[in-house]
Amino acid sequence: MSEQALQAAVVQICRLLGIEWYHTYDSRRSKKGFPDLVLCGSRLLYRELKTQVGKVTAEQEKWGTRLKCAGQSWDVWRPGDLESGRILRELMEIR
Q: 7, 32, 52, 63: most buried, per Cβ within 10 A?
């Protein structure tokens, strides 16, 4: 599953659950490494989306570390997380 397909699936779940989401349309003019999705329900989730074997870049790790130090929820979601139900569980928690 591609990152684009994973994102489409996550966005669809967000729409069904009434969770607001943000994705930078054209990241070429944005600071490198910012997470793919910001999800807003009862709290914020910052999620980087990767294929099952995709690697997180140094810039993405830096953002993740900074967000976690600031008390935010940052993590990486992969297609296996969709299949296992992890993504749905985490979204249900902020619904």
A: 63
- Closest alpha carbon to 76 in 53, 43, 94, 93: 53
Burial class (CB in 10 A: 0-12, 13-18, 19+), 28: exposed
Q: Which of these CATH numbers, 3.40.50.170, 3.30.420.10, 3.40.50.2000, 3.40.1350.10, describes 3-25+32-94?
A: 3.40.1350.10
Per-residue pLDDT tens over the stretch 30-87? 889 999 999 999 999 999 999 999 999 999 999 999 999 999 999 999 999 999 999 9
